Amino acid sequence: MNKDELKKRAAEKAVEYIESGMVVGLGTGSTTKFAIEKIGDLINRGKLKNITAIPTSIASEKLARELNIPLTDFFRETKIDITIDGADEVDRNLNLIKGGGGALLREKIVAQATEREIIIVDETKISVQLGEKWAVPIEVIKFAAGLESEYLKSIGGKPVLREVNGKPFVTDEGNYILDTNFGILKNPELLAEMLNERAGIVEHGLFIGLAAKVIVAKPDGIVELE
Ligand code: 5RP
C-alpha cells in the first residue's frame, strides 16, 4: 500500500465523525486534501446536509470552492465542531509539529476554536519525542526575520529561512517561516511558551494539547489515539 492510500484511509475514517449540521474546520496539506474531497462528495450526494466549513489556507479554500462545500468565517461562527487536519510529527502525548505546508497560523487559530481537533497521519509521522524528524516551523514578520533568526540561535535552535525556487516562502498572511531545528524537544511546552512571549514571532508549529484524536493509518489498519 503506498503513502497516498494510507493518507486516504486516515482521512476517510476522520470524515466518519462529521454529522449533518456541523461547522467543520478544513486543514491543509496532502492528507487533508483527501478529507476535503470526501466531505465534498458526501455533501454533493446529499449524505451530509447543512455543513459549513472554515478552511485553514487559501489552497484549502480553493479546493472547497471547487467541490461546492459551503464556507463560513469567524464573523458568522466562533465555534467549530470538528476540524480535520494533518501534522508533520506526533508524539506519544498527542502534541504535534505542524506547518510543513506553511499554514500553521490559520491552522492554530482554527484548532483553538475547535471542539474536536482530529489529526490524520500515516504511521511515518509518529515519534516518541517531537523533534526526532522535523524542525519547528516558526512564522515571523518579514521586518523581524533577521532578528528572530538570531534570537532562535541564542536559545539553541538552528533556523533556516524557508525558500521556494530560491525566494523566501511567503505565508497566506504575508510572513516568512524560519524552520528551526532544536534537536529532540525534551520540553516542548516550555519552548512553546518562550516562542509565544517573543514579539516578531507571529506563531509557531508546536501544537500542545490541541489534538483530541489522532488517526494513524498503517498498512495493516487504522489506529485511533486519544
Ligand atoms: C500545513 C500542515 C500540514 O497539515 C502538515 O504539513 C502535513 O501535511 P501533509 O499531510 O501534506 O503531510 O501543517 O501547514
Give a verbal description of the structure.
This protein is of the alpha/beta class. The protein folds into 2 domains: 3-128 and 208-225, Rossmann fold, CATH 3.40.50; 136-199, Alpha-Beta Plaits, CATH 3.30.70.260. Helix content is 29%, strand content 28%. The protein has helices at 3-15, 30-44, 58-66, 104-112, 145-154, 188-197; strands at residues 23-26, 52-55, 80-85, 89-90, 96-97, 114-122, 136-140, 158-161, 163-164, 167-168, 176-181, 201-204, 206-207, 213-218, 221-225. The strands form 4 sheets. It has a 6-stranded mixed beta sheet with strand order 2-1-3-6-14-15, with helices on both faces. The protein has a 4-stranded antiparallel beta sheet with strand order 8-11-7-12. A hairpin with a 2-residue loop joins β14 and β15. α1 (3-15) packs across α2 (30-44). It is globular. 49% of the residues are buried. The model has no long low-confidence stretch (mean pLDDT 97). The chain binds ribulose-5-phosphate.
Distance between the termini: 25 Å
Per CATH, the architecture of the largest domain is 3-Layer(aba) Sandwich
Strand percentage lies at: 25-35%
The low-confidence runs, each spanning 5 or more residues with pLDDT under 50, are: none
- CATH top level label of the largest domain: Alpha Beta
The chain-level mean pLDDT equals: 97
Query: Rg from C-alpha positions?
Result: 17 Å
Number of helical segments? 6
Heterogens: ribulose-5-phosphate
Biggest sheet features: 6 strands, mixed
* Shape verdict: globular
How many beta-strand elements?
15
Strand order of the largest sheet: 2-1-3-6-14-15
Number of domains: 2
CATH level-3 fold name of the largest domain = Rossmann fold
